[in-house]
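User: Hello, beginner here. Can you help me understand these amino acid letters and fold codes? It all follows right here:
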Amino acid sequence: MTSLAIRVENLAKEYHIGVARGDYATLRDRISHMLQAPFARFGAAGQARAAAEQFWALRDVSFEVQPGEVVGIVGRNGAGKSTLLKILSRITEPTRGRAAIYGRVGSLLEVGSGFHPELTGRENIYLNGAILGMRKAEIDRKFDEIVAFAEVERFLDTQVKFYSSGMYVRLAFAVAAHLEPEILIVDEVLAVGDAAFQKKCLNKMQDVGHEGRTVLFVSHNLPAVTRLCDRAILLRDGVVALDGSTHQVVGAYLNAGNGTSAERLWPDPATAPGGAVARLRAMRVRNEAGQVTDTFDIRQPVYLEMEYEVLQDGAVLLPHYWLENDEGVNIFSLHDVDPEWRQRPRPAGWYRSTAVIPGNLLAEGVIYVNPAIITLNPNVAQFDETYAVSFNVADAPAGADTARGDWTGKMYGVVRPLCQWQTEFKPTE
């Protein structure tokens, strides 16, 4: 008996795009074509098939997942992430290769997936449980927990075709997560929910991972991937570009070929983020020696460097950063308060703005940097580049000159400033 949860071997999926295949023409299409060209219908259908463009959504993808692993799948739009999950969920058949699943699978790939629109929320809970192979008594035991999590008590006996997209997602996720599948597969669908619900779902998936169940999680929310997953797989153009630790894979995804997650360039002005007044051209994280680096000791200062181009004379600009940790928490924002340019109209040209974060301020973990510029009076956003670069803050050992002092346990919080302490002593009389 295998000890694996998932085994994928040389998986490939081909689609034909551009022209509809003749095999799938409707009866109305065939009759219309016969009337227009009765003697050419078969040849035309063959030509349609020949003209269709081949597109490989996946090519020779191979990996294994152990029971209890929580694995993130990342990649840009069109990289093949959703196709992979559909094959693993037995929704789509591969063109070649093999995907073996060892265990009961719960999937949440798109809004309302697995729901029958004519059935009520209550009936769909039991239907999904039955599909997973659960007995009615098992579903009964989880029923109240599912309903409470989804927050759809008032609409439980309403047909789900009348649900909003948010209600769909809440109930679908609650069912998928609570009916105890051995393998949980979740796509980007959580982006439909509000912020509070997303946080609740992420906490639930973390619980599922701690219970020893396997999770495959596709998301563009990189802090969420970093928080949930110890391992990640980067898909690029349908192939596995990297399979390794989450920090390593997320760094490669952010960097897109520059060799470090701490630097990102936009050499082509046409594709650089920006508006009519200013556009971003480079973003870097440097150490005190001026070297581009993505790893810092908690005691070291961090230099955030933004290069941007001002396209028009006369605008007052506010360059700024906002920093986010690997749990998706906004740590703080940094606004440019350089007196040289504060409230001063800027001439067109090339600029470099650097902010210095002192050592012993940030807590350990991955920090994502989001550079932005707005013009003032009126306030108009020129760019706001999410997760442009990232860097890792490594904790110092106990006993070092940090806020940790001599403590060796876990420390909480998004910042960890080294504050001055003063203790007064009075001996006992």
User: Anything to note?
Assistant: The radius of gyration is 27 Å. Confidence is low (pLDDT under 50) at residues 40-50. The domain at 6-17+56-253 is CATH 3.40.50.300 (Rossmann fold). Residues 195-210 form the longest helix (16 residues).
